[in-house]
């Protein structure tokens, strides 16, 4: 990591165990949950929840435990309780497929409604839930957008090619692998150079793509900082330490 990038990011430990950095000048906290907290705008952002992924697999005969939606919503509840955001933005692929909203239990619907009460709630369109969101507001609260501006940040589901200052995107589910003492650990992570940010997936049943894959690595002119999610803290890693 070069000196300019290191000075721009200058991460330090946040009380939640997250890292506070500046993305295009905006003070942000990379949370242990995989959510992003935009401090001055009191905005909580979570990407790629993929609600009802388990039931989608079950419908195709692959029997996964049907607990992904309750687990993901519980994690979102904990973040909202901790931060009391004025705005919550779900950054695309909130639902795994077009029928996911219909498969959700009444209890999970109620929990989402309770979380949305008294704040601005935004569903940003992703490739998985583009059609699902068209009918989602019949049963769920909020507004649906393609992109959204939060201060100096432009929120979008899929990262766009070229230099995109202030872009905050998901879609790619970045993961980082580090090795030591003949063992390796692979964890979801944030990836940022201080100008743009790629978010980890927030959902309980989501996989990941190596940050060294060209789809992620090629978004950055200089080696970015990788912020890997641990059990109770976010670990800032340099590009050179990654497997």
Describe this entry's structure for a reader.
The mean pLDDT is 87. The longest helix has 16 residues, at 68-83. With 243 residues, this protein is of the alpha/beta class. The radius of gyration is 17 Å and the shape is globular. It has one domain: Purple Acid Phosphatase, chain A, domain 2, CATH 3.60.21. β7, α6 (132-136) and β8 form a beta-alpha-beta unit. The chain has helices at residues 3-9, 53-59, 68-83, 100-103, 106-116, 132-136, 214-217; strands at 12-13, 19-23, 26-30, 36-38, 43-46, 87-90, 120-124, 143-145, 148-150, 153-155, 167-169, 174-180, 183-192, 197-198, 209-210, 225-229, 234-237.
What's the short story on this structure?
By secondary structure, the chain is an alpha/beta fold. It has helices spanning 3-9, 53-59, 68-83, 100-103, 106-116, 132-136, 214-217; strands at 12-13, 19-23, 26-30, 36-38, 43-46, 87-90, 120-124, 143-145, 148-150, 153-155, 167-169, 174-180, 183-192, 197-198, 209-210, 225-229, 234-237.
Overall spatial form: globular
Using the CA coordinates, give the radius of gyration.
17 Å
| CATH fold annotation | Purple Acid Phosphatase, chain A, domain 2
- Quaternary status: single chain
Just give the CATH class. Alpha Beta
Number of domains: 1
Percent helix range: 10-25%
Distance between the termini: 16 Å
Taken as a percent bin, the fraction of beta residues is: 25-35%
Total E-strand runs: 17
The secondary-structure element order is HEEEEEHHEHHEHEEEEEEEEHEE
Task: State mean pLDDT (0 to 100 scale).
Answer: 87
Assign the structural class, choosing from mainly alpha, mainly beta, alpha/beta, alpha+beta, or little secondary structure.
alpha/beta
* Reported CATH architecture: 4-Layer Sandwich
Q: Can you tell me the residue ranges where pLDDT is under 50 for at least 5 consecutive residues? A: none
Question: In this structure, how is the largest beta sheet organized?
Answer: 9 strands, mixed
Number of helices: 7
